[in-house]
Amino acid sequence: MKNCIKITIILVIFISLAIVSFCVLFDEAVLVRKKSVFRVNRVEKVVALTFDDGPSQVWTPKILDELKKAHIKATFFMLGEHVAKYPEIARRVAQERHEIGNHTYDHHVLLYYSFGELENEIKDTEQIIKKVTGKTTRYFRPPKAWLTVKERKKIEGLGYRVVLWSLNSKDWVTFDDKYIVKYILKNIRPGDIILFHDSGGVFSTEGGDRDETVRTIPLLVDELTKKGYRFVTLTELLDNKNK
Fold it and tell me: pLDDT, tens digit, for every residue of 99-133?
C-alpha cells in the first residue's frame, strides 16, 4: 500500500512538472491559431504590442507610463470584471488613445461554454467596456488562446476579429527583462503581434508581478527602433497588411 501511494505521488509530481514545463517552454497558441489573426505579412518593419488580463490598479499605470515615454500606442485586451473593478484605469487606457480588445468577463476557458453562454460572456464585457470607456471593441482574444472552430465562427458572427499572437513574451513566468528582449529580438519579423500581460499571475487573473514587463518595454523599444522597427496598433497593422 505504501509503495502504491509513493508511486501515485511521484506520478502526480511528474505530470504536474510536465504540464508546467509545457506551458513555460511551448506556446499553446500555435496549436489553435489557424484561421485566426496572429500576425500579418508586412514588408515594412512594424509590430504590434498587446497586453492581456488587465486593467490592473498596480501594473497598467506603470505600463502606460512607459508607453507614453516611448510615444507608442498598444492594444489592451481587457477583462470585463477588471474594467468594472478599476474603471479609472480603463478610462486612462482609452484617453491615452490605446486600443481596447475583449478578453471575456472573467478569463474562463471557453471550451466548456454553450453558444448562449459564450455570447453573454462577450456581450457583457463589450457593454461594460463601452459604458466605462466609451469605446466599442472590434477585437477578441480568448483566454489561453483556446477556441474551437465553431466558437471562432460564432464570435466572428458577433462582429469580432479573433486575434492571437505570433510572439509570446511569457512574461507571466517572470522571466528576466533582458531574456525576454533577447528572445523577441531573435525571433522578430515584420508584422508580428507580441503578447504581454498587464495583470495576472500563474494561477490567477490578479496578483501577478509585472515588474519585468514594465522593465522590458523601454529596452525592447530601444533595440527594435535601432533595427528600424516601428510600433503600431492592431488596426494600423491589419488595415495596411500588404504594405
Answer: 999 999 988 877 778 888 899 999 999 999 999 99
Q: How many domains does the chain have?
A: 1
Average pLDDT of 88-98? 98
The verdict on whether 52 is a catalytic residue reads yes
Residue 234 lies in a domain: yes
Within-domain flag for 124: yes
Residue predicted with more confidence, 154 or 5: 154
Query: Any residues with CB less than 8 A from the CB of 199 and at least 6 apart, and which?
Result: 52, 53, 54, 55, 56, 59, 60, 79, 82, 205, 206, 208, 210
Burial 160-187 (b: 16+ CB within 10 A, else e): bebbbbbbbbbbbebbebeebbeebeee
Q: Which residues pair with 139 in a beta bridge?
A: 161
- 16 assigned to some structural domain: no
Beta-carbon contacts of residue 95 (< 8 Å; ≥ 6 apart): none
Query: Residues 53, 98, 197, 198: which is the catalytic one?
Result: 197
- Candidate list 27, 52, 103, 211, residue with the active-site label: 52
If you average pLDDT over residues 214-229, what whole number do you get?
A: 97
The pTM of the full predicted model, rounded to 2 decimals, is 0.87
Active site residue 171: no
In a domain, 46, yes or no: yes
Q: d(Cα 93, Cα 73) in Å, to the nearest integer?
A: 10
Range of the domain at 94: 31-239
